[in-house]
Amino acid sequence: MAVSIDPIHQFELQPLVTLGHIGKQQLAFTQSALYMFAAVGIIALLTIVATAGRSVVPGRLQSLAETLYEFIADTVHQATGADGKRFLPLVFSLFMFVLILNLLGMIPYAFAVTSHLIVTFGLALVVILTVVIYGVAKHGTHFLGVFVPSGVPKPLLLIMVPIEIVSFLSRPISLSVRLFANILAGHIALKIFAFFVVQLLVAGAWGVLSPLPLALTIALTALEFLVAALQAYVFATLTAVYLADALHPGH
Amino acid sequence: MRLSTEFIAGVIAGGILGYIVDHLFGSKPWGMIVMVMLGFVTGIYNVMRVSGFSGRKTEKDPRQES
Lengths: 251, 66
Prior knowledge:
Chain A: One of its GO terms (cellular component) is proton-transporting ATP synthase complex. The structure holds 2 protein chains of 2 kinds. Chain A contains 6 helices and 2 strands; from the N terminus they run ββαααααα. Chain A is mainly alpha-helical. Chain A has one domain (9-247). By secondary structure, chain B is an all-alpha fold. The longest helix of chain B has 24 residues, at 2-25. The chains are: A mainly alpha, B mainly alpha.
Protein backbone atom coordinates (compact mmCIF):
# COMPACT_ATOMS: atom_id res chain seq x y z
CA MET A 1 0.00 0.00 0.00
CA ALA A 2 2.49 2.59 -1.07
CA VAL A 3 -0.23 4.82 -2.43
CA SER A 4 -2.36 6.78 -0.03
CA ILE A 5 -5.26 9.06 -0.74
CA ASP A 6 -7.32 11.69 0.93
CA PRO A 7 -10.88 11.75 -0.45
CA ILE A 8 -11.51 15.11 1.22
CA HIS A 9 -8.62 16.84 -0.53
CA GLN A 10 -10.76 17.67 -3.57
CA PHE A 11 -12.92 19.99 -1.46
CA GLU A 12 -10.06 22.15 -0.25
CA LEU A 13 -10.29 25.82 -1.14
CA GLN A 14 -7.28 27.14 -3.00
CA PRO A 15 -6.84 30.89 -3.02
CA LEU A 16 -6.01 32.15 -6.50
CA VAL A 17 -5.61 35.84 -5.74
CA THR A 18 -5.24 37.19 -2.24
CA LEU A 19 -7.21 40.39 -1.78
CA GLY A 20 -6.12 41.26 1.73
CA HIS A 21 -6.69 40.39 5.34
CA ILE A 22 -9.30 41.17 7.97
CA GLY A 23 -7.56 40.46 11.24
CA LYS A 24 -6.05 37.03 10.72
CA GLN A 25 -8.65 35.96 8.20
CA GLN A 26 -7.40 35.89 4.68
CA LEU A 27 -9.67 37.31 2.02
CA ALA A 28 -9.03 35.57 -1.23
CA PHE A 29 -10.50 34.93 -4.63
CA THR A 30 -10.65 31.14 -4.46
CA GLN A 31 -11.28 28.55 -7.15
CA SER A 32 -14.76 28.28 -5.65
CA ALA A 33 -15.49 31.88 -6.62
CA LEU A 34 -13.97 31.25 -10.04
CA TYR A 35 -16.35 28.34 -10.62
CA MET A 36 -19.30 30.47 -9.53
CA PHE A 37 -18.37 33.16 -12.03
CA ALA A 38 -17.93 30.48 -14.67
CA ALA A 39 -21.39 29.15 -13.87
CA VAL A 40 -22.92 32.60 -14.18
CA GLY A 41 -21.11 33.04 -17.49
CA ILE A 42 -22.41 29.72 -18.82
CA ILE A 43 -25.95 30.53 -17.72
CA ALA A 44 -25.79 33.94 -19.37
CA LEU A 45 -24.44 32.35 -22.53
CA LEU A 46 -27.15 29.71 -22.50
CA THR A 47 -30.05 32.05 -21.85
CA ILE A 48 -29.11 35.35 -23.47
CA VAL A 49 -27.07 34.30 -26.47
CA ALA A 50 -29.09 31.18 -27.23
CA THR A 51 -32.38 33.05 -27.33
CA ALA A 52 -31.02 36.11 -29.12
CA GLY A 53 -32.03 34.65 -32.48
CA ARG A 54 -35.68 34.29 -31.43
CA SER A 55 -36.34 31.99 -34.31
CA VAL A 56 -39.78 30.44 -34.53
CA VAL A 57 -38.21 27.06 -35.14
CA PRO A 58 -35.59 27.01 -32.36
CA GLY A 59 -32.10 25.72 -32.87
CA ARG A 60 -30.42 23.33 -30.48
CA LEU A 61 -29.31 25.84 -27.83
CA GLN A 62 -32.48 27.87 -28.03
CA SER A 63 -34.70 24.84 -27.58
CA LEU A 64 -32.59 23.75 -24.61
CA ALA A 65 -33.00 27.15 -22.97
CA GLU A 66 -36.71 27.18 -23.75
CA THR A 67 -37.21 23.68 -22.35
CA LEU A 68 -35.50 24.62 -19.09
CA TYR A 69 -37.53 27.79 -18.82
CA GLU A 70 -40.84 26.05 -19.49
CA PHE A 71 -39.95 23.33 -17.02
CA ILE A 72 -39.31 25.76 -14.17
CA ALA A 73 -42.28 27.93 -15.15
CA ASP A 74 -44.51 24.84 -14.87
CA THR A 75 -43.05 23.91 -11.49
CA VAL A 76 -43.53 27.41 -10.10
CA HIS A 77 -47.05 27.62 -11.48
CA GLN A 78 -48.05 24.30 -9.93
CA ALA A 79 -46.65 25.20 -6.53
CA THR A 80 -47.69 28.83 -6.17
CA GLY A 81 -50.58 29.42 -8.55
CA ALA A 82 -51.06 32.31 -10.96
CA ASP A 83 -49.66 35.11 -8.77
CA GLY A 84 -46.43 33.18 -8.20
CA LYS A 85 -45.21 34.31 -11.59
CA ARG A 86 -43.27 37.21 -10.08
CA PHE A 87 -40.97 34.74 -8.34
CA LEU A 88 -40.13 32.90 -11.52
CA PRO A 89 -36.87 34.85 -12.13
CA LEU A 90 -35.66 34.01 -8.62
CA VAL A 91 -36.50 30.32 -8.83
CA PHE A 92 -35.13 30.03 -12.36
CA SER A 93 -31.85 31.72 -11.37
CA LEU A 94 -31.44 29.48 -8.34
CA PHE A 95 -32.25 26.37 -10.36
CA MET A 96 -29.80 27.21 -13.15
CA PHE A 97 -27.07 28.23 -10.72
CA VAL A 98 -27.32 25.03 -8.71
CA LEU A 99 -27.70 22.87 -11.81
CA ILE A 100 -24.70 24.33 -13.61
CA LEU A 101 -22.54 24.21 -10.47
CA ASN A 102 -23.50 20.57 -9.86
CA LEU A 103 -22.75 19.63 -13.44
CA LEU A 104 -19.47 21.57 -13.46
CA GLY A 105 -18.51 19.60 -10.37
CA MET A 106 -18.98 16.36 -12.29
CA ILE A 107 -16.16 17.20 -14.71
CA PRO A 108 -13.06 15.26 -13.66
CA TYR A 109 -10.61 17.42 -11.66
CA ALA A 110 -13.20 20.17 -11.39
CA PHE A 111 -14.32 21.57 -8.08
CA ALA A 112 -17.87 21.05 -6.80
CA VAL A 113 -18.91 24.39 -5.31
CA THR A 114 -22.19 23.04 -3.93
CA SER A 115 -20.28 20.60 -1.73
CA HIS A 116 -19.63 23.51 0.64
CA LEU A 117 -22.32 24.00 3.25
CA ILE A 118 -21.83 27.75 3.42
CA VAL A 119 -22.65 28.18 -0.28
CA THR A 120 -25.86 26.17 -0.12
CA PHE A 121 -26.82 27.79 3.16
CA GLY A 122 -26.35 31.19 1.58
CA LEU A 123 -28.70 30.20 -1.24
CA ALA A 124 -31.23 28.81 1.26
CA LEU A 125 -31.05 32.05 3.26
CA VAL A 126 -31.88 34.03 0.13
CA VAL A 127 -35.01 31.91 -0.28
CA ILE A 128 -36.13 32.12 3.35
CA LEU A 129 -35.44 35.85 3.64
CA THR A 130 -37.46 36.40 0.47
CA VAL A 131 -40.32 34.43 2.00
CA VAL A 132 -40.21 36.36 5.28
CA ILE A 133 -39.69 39.84 3.84
CA TYR A 134 -42.23 39.45 1.05
CA GLY A 135 -44.73 37.75 3.36
CA VAL A 136 -44.51 40.47 6.01
CA ALA A 137 -44.58 43.27 3.44
CA LYS A 138 -47.63 41.86 1.68
CA HIS A 139 -49.68 40.44 4.53
CA GLY A 140 -48.32 42.22 7.63
CA THR A 141 -49.20 40.36 10.83
CA HIS A 142 -51.48 38.13 8.82
CA PHE A 143 -48.29 36.40 7.66
CA LEU A 144 -48.12 34.75 11.10
CA GLY A 145 -50.95 32.52 9.84
CA VAL A 146 -48.16 30.36 8.40
CA PHE A 147 -47.65 29.02 11.91
CA VAL A 148 -51.29 28.08 12.44
CA PRO A 149 -52.19 24.86 10.64
CA SER A 150 -55.75 24.78 9.41
CA GLY A 151 -58.31 22.25 10.58
CA VAL A 152 -56.69 21.63 13.97
CA PRO A 153 -58.77 21.71 17.18
CA LYS A 154 -58.13 24.75 19.41
CA PRO A 155 -56.39 23.00 22.39
CA LEU A 156 -53.98 21.24 20.05
CA LEU A 157 -52.81 24.61 18.68
CA LEU A 158 -50.89 25.06 21.94
CA ILE A 159 -48.56 22.27 20.80
CA MET A 160 -48.83 22.71 17.04
CA VAL A 161 -47.82 26.37 16.87
CA PRO A 162 -44.37 25.88 18.50
CA ILE A 163 -43.82 22.84 16.29
CA GLU A 164 -44.72 24.85 13.21
CA ILE A 165 -42.34 27.64 14.28
CA VAL A 166 -39.42 25.25 14.72
CA SER A 167 -40.43 23.56 11.47
CA PHE A 168 -40.28 26.90 9.69
CA LEU A 169 -36.84 27.60 11.17
CA SER A 170 -35.62 24.17 10.10
CA ARG A 171 -36.45 24.86 6.47
CA PRO A 172 -33.28 26.72 5.46
CA ILE A 173 -31.27 24.06 7.29
CA SER A 174 -32.90 21.13 5.53
CA LEU A 175 -32.83 22.94 2.19
CA SER A 176 -29.09 23.61 2.40
CA VAL A 177 -28.00 20.39 4.11
CA ARG A 178 -29.82 18.24 1.55
CA LEU A 179 -28.01 19.73 -1.43
CA PHE A 180 -24.64 19.91 0.29
CA ALA A 181 -24.81 16.36 1.72
CA ASN A 182 -25.86 14.81 -1.58
CA ILE A 183 -23.04 16.40 -3.53
CA LEU A 184 -20.40 15.86 -0.84
CA ALA A 185 -21.33 12.23 -0.23
CA GLY A 186 -21.48 11.49 -3.94
CA HIS A 187 -18.05 12.93 -4.66
CA ILE A 188 -16.44 11.16 -1.70
CA ALA A 189 -18.03 7.83 -2.67
CA LEU A 190 -16.83 8.24 -6.25
CA LYS A 191 -13.30 9.01 -5.11
CA ILE A 192 -13.13 6.07 -2.72
CA PHE A 193 -14.48 3.51 -5.18
CA ALA A 194 -12.23 4.79 -7.92
CA PHE A 195 -9.30 4.43 -5.56
CA PHE A 196 -10.21 0.80 -4.85
CA VAL A 197 -9.31 0.07 -8.47
CA VAL A 198 -5.80 1.40 -7.96
CA GLN A 199 -5.41 -0.31 -4.62
CA LEU A 200 -6.41 -3.70 -6.03
CA LEU A 201 -4.10 -3.30 -9.02
CA VAL A 202 -1.03 -2.73 -6.85
CA ALA A 203 -1.98 -5.63 -4.55
CA GLY A 204 -0.64 -8.30 -6.90
CA ALA A 205 -3.04 -11.21 -7.51
CA TRP A 206 -5.96 -9.23 -6.13
CA GLY A 207 -5.77 -7.16 -9.30
CA VAL A 208 -8.11 -9.73 -10.88
CA LEU A 209 -10.91 -8.18 -8.83
CA SER A 210 -10.23 -4.61 -9.97
CA PRO A 211 -12.96 -4.54 -12.68
CA LEU A 212 -15.60 -4.77 -9.92
CA PRO A 213 -14.99 -1.38 -8.33
CA LEU A 214 -14.39 0.01 -11.81
CA ALA A 215 -17.90 -1.03 -12.87
CA LEU A 216 -19.26 0.41 -9.64
CA THR A 217 -17.45 3.69 -10.28
CA ILE A 218 -19.00 3.95 -13.73
CA ALA A 219 -22.45 3.23 -12.31
CA LEU A 220 -21.90 5.78 -9.54
CA THR A 221 -20.86 8.41 -12.08
CA ALA A 222 -24.17 7.94 -13.88
CA LEU A 223 -26.00 8.12 -10.55
CA GLU A 224 -24.15 11.32 -9.65
CA PHE A 225 -25.30 12.97 -12.86
CA LEU A 226 -28.85 12.03 -11.91
CA VAL A 227 -28.34 13.40 -8.40
CA ALA A 228 -26.84 16.62 -9.76
CA ALA A 229 -29.91 17.35 -11.88
CA LEU A 230 -32.37 16.02 -9.30
CA GLN A 231 -31.01 18.08 -6.43
CA ALA A 232 -31.20 21.24 -8.51
CA TYR A 233 -34.82 20.38 -9.31
CA VAL A 234 -35.62 19.59 -5.66
CA PHE A 235 -34.06 22.88 -4.60
CA ALA A 236 -36.21 24.76 -7.11
CA THR A 237 -39.39 22.87 -6.19
CA LEU A 238 -38.97 23.44 -2.47
CA THR A 239 -38.17 27.10 -3.10
CA ALA A 240 -41.45 27.40 -4.98
CA VAL A 241 -43.30 25.57 -2.19
CA TYR A 242 -41.90 27.89 0.46
CA LEU A 243 -42.67 30.95 -1.67
CA ALA A 244 -46.26 29.72 -1.89
CA ASP A 245 -46.39 30.21 1.89
CA ALA A 246 -45.38 33.82 1.48
CA LEU A 247 -48.14 34.37 -1.08
CA HIS A 248 -50.90 32.49 0.75
CA PRO A 249 -50.14 32.23 4.48
CA GLY A 250 -52.50 30.20 6.60
CA HIS A 251 -53.75 28.07 3.69
CA MET B 1 -31.45 11.13 2.15
CA ARG B 2 -34.45 13.38 1.67
CA LEU B 3 -36.23 12.20 4.79
CA SER B 4 -33.15 12.02 7.00
CA THR B 5 -32.14 15.61 6.26
CA GLU B 6 -35.69 16.65 7.02
CA PHE B 7 -35.45 14.99 10.44
CA ILE B 8 -31.94 16.20 11.24
CA ALA B 9 -32.82 19.76 10.25
CA GLY B 10 -35.62 19.77 12.83
CA VAL B 11 -33.29 18.66 15.60
CA ILE B 12 -30.58 21.13 14.61
CA ALA B 13 -33.08 23.99 14.44
CA GLY B 14 -34.31 23.05 17.92
CA GLY B 15 -30.75 22.91 19.21
CA ILE B 16 -29.86 26.33 17.82
CA LEU B 17 -33.08 27.80 19.21
CA GLY B 18 -32.36 26.24 22.61
CA TYR B 19 -28.85 27.67 22.61
CA ILE B 20 -30.18 31.14 21.81
CA VAL B 21 -32.85 30.89 24.53
CA ASP B 22 -30.26 29.82 27.10
CA HIS B 23 -27.93 32.59 26.00
CA LEU B 24 -30.64 35.25 26.29
CA PHE B 25 -32.27 34.19 29.54
CA GLY B 26 -29.36 32.43 31.27
CA SER B 27 -31.50 29.36 31.86
CA LYS B 28 -28.49 27.17 31.15
CA PRO B 29 -29.61 23.61 30.55
CA TRP B 30 -33.39 23.97 30.37
CA GLY B 31 -33.86 25.92 27.17
CA MET B 32 -31.64 23.46 25.33
CA ILE B 33 -33.45 20.42 26.75
CA VAL B 34 -36.93 21.67 25.95
CA MET B 35 -36.01 23.00 22.51
CA VAL B 36 -34.13 19.89 21.40
CA MET B 37 -37.12 17.77 22.41
CA LEU B 38 -39.34 20.12 20.46
CA GLY B 39 -36.84 19.76 17.62
CA PHE B 40 -37.25 15.98 17.67
CA VAL B 41 -41.00 16.35 17.53
CA THR B 42 -40.62 18.78 14.64
CA GLY B 43 -38.29 16.41 12.84
CA ILE B 44 -40.81 13.60 13.05
CA TYR B 45 -43.57 15.98 11.99
CA ASN B 46 -41.49 17.11 9.01
CA VAL B 47 -40.85 13.53 7.96
CA MET B 48 -44.52 12.63 8.27
CA ARG B 49 -45.50 15.63 6.20
CA VAL B 50 -42.95 15.01 3.46
CA SER B 51 -43.66 11.29 3.22
CA GLY B 52 -47.36 12.03 2.89
CA PHE B 53 -48.22 10.24 6.13
CA SER B 54 -50.28 13.09 7.50
CA GLY B 55 -53.22 14.67 5.75
CA ARG B 56 -51.59 17.99 4.86
CA LYS B 57 -50.53 18.16 1.25
CA THR B 58 -48.70 21.49 1.20
CA GLU B 59 -45.19 20.12 1.01
CA LYS B 60 -45.88 17.20 -1.22
CA ASP B 61 -42.80 16.62 -3.28
CA PRO B 62 -42.96 14.48 -6.43
CA ARG B 63 -39.76 12.80 -5.42
CA GLN B 64 -39.51 11.01 -2.08
CA GLU B 65 -36.18 9.23 -2.05
CA SER B 66 -32.44 9.60 -2.74
